[in-house]
Amino acid sequence: MKWHQRSSSIYLIVNPVAKGYSKRAFDSLLKNLKEAFDKNIEVFYTTKRGDAEEFARSIASEGGSVILVVGGDGTLNEAINGIANTDLPLGFIPSGTTNVAAKEFGIKEHYQKALRQLLEAEPRRITLGRINGRYFLLMAGAGFDGYSVKGVNPKIKALTGKGAYILSGTKVFLKDRLPTVEVGVNGLTYRATSVIVANASCYGGRFRVCPEASVFDENLDVAIFEGSTRRAMLRYITGIVTGTHLRYKDVIFLKTDRLTIKGTTHIQIDGDYFGLSPAEVETVPKGLNFLMPQ
């Protein structure tokens, strides 16, 4: 018996200002859901940051059957923070700017196609990351990542999508000299200007900083970038685009279930700004019951 046959109700958390959101397409999806299932279907629309987390937590506390998130990676992250470590299944219909989670799990970036995939999906327990008490699904990035995401202009993001991240990253590259932090992993300490902690292999789209990272692994994959010059940063960026960074001697790759970042730098998680280090990062095995496409 499929999850939707076992569920007494379906809750949708929708971000109507996500870059890929289409009211017409969503109305059609909702119509199809109501026609296909004799279920209680409720829709919650976000209006500000934090709404998706609050909605998800409320649904979980009231004994909801399943949540479907219609939005981007940031909306998905919020919902996860509302229901982590519960049995409530969570599905994802992507409509964001980059939709890294969709690319990671092979979810179609089309409402009806994604829904058809979800109807055949089964809940699977997957690993989450947690940084200073907040959960992430895909990655946490400190240094260049954090500065770039912090600098994204919301108005430019609404107009250009990924272009806003490229513009902000270019400004960071040209203007900012990144601070050095200390990264503690497996009893050793490394000095770095940027650190990427991956719980999934896709990064910034289809790039793969840590190609072996997986939500089915109970460890996190860590990439530590030691270089501090602008020339080194340019080499890292081009290396990630081409995949050659995996051979760089000043990029260290490790697996661990926990790490620390000491010093002060900016951090992003799942593509949204998180805040400043210091930070403690750890894995949360089986932390989410996710509707995984076949």
Question: Which key features would you list for this structure?
Answer:
single chain, Rossmann fold, globular, Tumour Suppressor Smad4, 32% strand, 2 domains, six-stranded antiparallel sheet, 294 residues, alpha+beta, 16 strands
Short structural summary:
With 294 residues, the protein is of the alpha+beta class. It contains ten helices and 16 strands.
Span from first to last CA? Answer: 15 Å
Q: What about the largest sheet?
A: 6 strands, antiparallel
The tally of structural domains comes to 2
* The CATH C-level class name of the largest domain: Mainly Beta
Helix content, binned percent: 25-40%
State the CATH topology of the largest domain: Tumour Suppressor Smad4
Q: Helix-strand pattern, N to C?
A: HEHEHEHEHHEEEHHHEEEEHEEEEE
Number of helices: 10
- Give the strand order of the largest sheet, numbering strands 1, 2, ... along the chain: 6-5-16-13-8-9
Give me the count of strands.
Answer: 16
Shape: globular
- The fraction of residues assigned to DSSP E strands is 25-35%
**Which structural class matches the secondary elements?**
alpha+beta
What is the architecture of the largest domain at the second tier of CATH? Sandwich
> Spans with pLDDT under 50 lasting ≥5 residues?
none
* Average pLDDT rating: 92
Radius of gyration: 19 Å
